[in-house]
Specification:
TIM Barrel, eight-stranded parallel β-sheet, 10 strands, globular, disordered N terminus, beta-N-acetylhexosaminidase, GH
Length: 363
């Protein structure tokens, strides 16, 4: 009965969004939130990877038992167009009271997860080199069209890092260019193209991964710039994206030494709640980069990192996979709330944002 009520409330939320009644939308989302169990709320804050190319016990457990709010597709989950279509159709048939985020890293160029039998999209650097707003927009729109056809509703793109350090091994041609103007202009146009195809665009990797020499997949990058230097360069594309109705920002595992020398940005209240939310005025969904990356796991457990990130202001914790790890994170978050280390009000704040985003796009 509770699931039926949640579905009804979600339909109401979708309807009021369609007619543009913000007050009613707020009330409808609050109704959903009030009906949810703590387990359901925590699940909404997890976006996770899984093993396999079809619906299996692991995937069913994550969705039906652990009630995760979203999935990320990696290359190992995708073989062909027909297999991908079948996988996502089967996922959509699983009984979920609230729709899932179905996400992917599809930037174009060397970061592409789509099947090999689909025409590939150009890298960000190729798009940036044309310096053509219409081309960037159309690239995003066509990418969104393909993703939407398969049932994917969230893309971890565009990259808004500025490629300003030639020793950087992780960004390179994933960036639109080496100056803030070209990255801002091309990135925002690609974001708009995705959004116009009803794809949630997630800009990344705040506060900026372009001037680093350590790949956060293998270690912890440290940036020594002052706040003033960051505001005049790295923050500019993100600031402009926020001004242009950005829905989701991914926060990376980078230490800003002059802001918070102890914590990576993804775990830093000074960065997420301070710089991103207060200084840049971003009040939509914040998601972490993958918590399985070595920048995190070399120094702290995924469970502890997830809790600290929520405290810092993150709304969604991205965990690239591992059923045991994911379930352990959920249990530790539950325990942290029961122990009073983490408040349910803090959870509600994030889940409200998540439900609001889902009501906007997942219709």
């Amino acid at each position: 009965m509770k699931k039926i009520r949640i579905i009804q409330y979600l339909i109401i939320a979708l309807m009021v969004v369609f007619v543009g009644c913000n007050k009613s939308r707020h009330e409808a989302i609050k109704e959903i939130l009030n009906e949810m169990t703590l387990e359901e709320k925590i699940g909404q804050m997890l976006l996770v990877g899984f093993n396999g190319i079809s619906v299996n016990n692991e995937l069913s457990t994550l969705i039906k038992d652990e009630k995760v709010g979203g999935l990320i597709l990696f290359k190992e989950n995708i073989e062909t167009s027909s297999q991908l279509k079948s996988l996502l159709e089967d996922i959509s048939k699983l009984n979920t009271s609230i729709p899932l985020f179905i996400s992917i890293d599809e930037e174009g160029g060397r970061v592409s997860r789509l099947p090999d039998d689909i025409n590939k999209f150009p890298s960000a650097s190729e798009v940036g080199s044309k310096d053509d707003k219409e081309y960037a927009y159309e690239n995003g729109r066509k990418m969104g069209e393909v993703l939407s056809k398969y049932g994917i509703n969230m893309d971890f793109a565009p990259v808004l890092d500025i490629y300003s350090n030639t020793k950087n091994t992780v960004i390179g041609n994933r960036a639109f260019g080496n100056n803030e103007e070209i990255v801002s202009t091309m990135g925002i146009e690609m974001m708009k193209g995705l959004q116009d195809e009803n794809i949630i665009a997630c800009v990344k990797h705040f506060p900026g991964h372009g001037d680093t020499e350590v790949d956060s997949h293998v270690g912890l990058p440290i940036v020594y710039k002052t706040l003033e230097e960051l505001e005049k360069f790295e923050f500019i594309p993100f600031k402009k994206a926020i001004e242009n109705n950005c829905d989701v920002v991914m926060v990376s595992h980078i230490v800003l030494n002059e802001i918070d020398s102890k914590n990576p940005s993804s775990l830093s209240k000074a960065v997420i709640s301070g710089l991103l939310r207060e200084n840049l005025g971003f009040d939509n969904v914040v998601i972490t980069d993958d918590m399985n990356m070595s920048a995190i796991t070399n120094t702290i457990s995924v469970e502890k990192a997830s809790i600290e990130s929520i405290k810092a202001g993150s709304d969604i914790i991205l965990i690239g996979g591992g059923l045991d790890t994911i379930t352990s994170v959920i249990r530790e978050i539950e325990l942290s709330i029961k122990n009073g280390d983490l408040s349910e009000d803090r959870i509600d704040e994030s889940v409200y944002r998540i439900l609001e985003l889902k009501s906007k796009y997942l219709r």
